[in-house]
Amino acid sequence: MERSPSSLKLFGSWASSYTHRVQLAMKLKNIQFEYIEEDLANKSEALLQFNPIYKKVPVLVHNDRPIAESVIILQYVDEVWSDRPVLPTDPYERSVARFWCHFADDKLGPAVGAVFASSGEVQKAAVDQVHENLALIERELREGFFKGKKFFGGESIGLLDIVLGCGSYWLAVFDEVMTDVKLVDPEALPLFHAWLREFEALDEVKETIPAVDKLLEYAKAVRQMLLGMSNNATADSPTATASASATAPVPDITVDS
Amino acid sequence: MAASGNQEVTLLGVRLSPFVIRVGIALNIKEVQYEFLEEILSAKSELLLKSNPVYKKVPVLIHDGKPICESMIIVQYIDDVWTRSGTTLMPTDPYQKAMHRFWTVYLDDKFEPSLYNLTMSQTEAAKAEAEEQTMAVLQLLEEAFVKMSNKGKPFFGGDTIGYLDIAIGSYLGWMRATEEIIGLKLLDDARIPLLCAWAENFCNNEAVRNVSPEIMKIVEYAKFLRSKYTPPPAK
Description:
The complex is a heterodimer.
Chain A: E1 8-12, H1 17-29, E2 34-37, H2 45-50, E3 59-62, E4 65-68, H3 70-80, H4 91-117, H5 120-143, H6 159-177, H7 190-201, H8 203-208, H9 212-229, H10 238-247
Parallel strand pairs in A: 1-2
Antiparallel strand pairs in A: 1-3, 3-4
Helix pairs in contact in A: 1-3, 1-6, 4-5, 4-6, 6-9
Chain B: E1 9-13, H1 18-29, E2 35-38, H2 46-51, E3 60-63, E4 66-69, H3 71-81, H4 94-120, H5 124-148, H6 163-169, H7 172-183, H8 193-204, H9 206-209, H10 215-228
Parallel strand pairs in B: 1-2
Antiparallel strand pairs in B: 1-3, 3-4
């Protein structure tokens, strides 16, 4: 099994939760690789060459062959390096994990991004969306497929923990930056909250996710910029939100950036 | 691991949906007996709402009482469960798998909305924009086919229909219906010859024919949707 660092490169960005997903999986599996930090405002030729379709991070390049899209990269890594598997072995369990990964990136991520990029009435609606989405996850933990489990992967973290976890750390950061917004209420979402605390307490996670003060600083700066931009139109208007999120390097819980 | 014939397989869907067709093709390739329950989207069944409470959409596969949602997740599940030799949908090579998955993500992300916009388009401007976007995706898929089909084999999956073939092929009916309604050629031999040859091979496959609706039925339904369509506000 290939373990040479020079044949395995990861293009990423320090504040990208999608990059963290891959870094966390590599750490769990003890895979050595070369990490290349991208300046998302000034993307390298190499990144554009390896991901011409989306031009985003993360991109994994293994023996000069690129793989893009974090969940696809995670599955690829799991298939090539079979130690410490991240996907369940049972087909039904796999389908459930994949479904909630899809939900995380299709619904939850964009809703959280919308909260961050808006204010006023638009933001209130986005916050409601986030609460609704988290409530669905809470229900699965309380009475559904994940009832009684410590992690979505069981006793140890798996694909869904990695996907949801690397992204959910933004929730507390946003709650801090936007003081009149509460995305995670431990009383309303006790199981989700407990899972997130367990996830964040893991050594491998602590070593992967940037320090909270760095995330806060970054989030505050981006939020300022977004609000500043939306002064060109009323803060509540969809055009303001749309133009803001289209051009700002929003903490990329919404899209691989 | 072969599933026993006693385990019930039910597919909740609507016959004209490309996403439902995907599942039907996969089940047919694996020769799985299943019950098809036709849903009325404006009056969804209790079973559907209970089986897919998150999205409330079709398709849903119910196997042995357990629901699986999202068309390509269902296709992967079917591939994992019914493993008769000669019917694998995913390639064995991890990199090839990643390519099937990537193009499927891209397809549903970019192609589906452009095709929908094209089918619904009712002004020259809307048609032109949607046509350009749709053809751009097809062009990329034509290039991908060269790389993936492995020296002139008929499908993205090689000799037999694979995961990505199913993902793209499920749109062919709607593409043909759109050509009919809008009056243009998407499957243009001059521009995308490989995809056109691929489409013919795909549509001639028995597993596919069995779940492919008549084009005129899709045309009829698309015309109905067009009559109700209001374009989104200009950005």
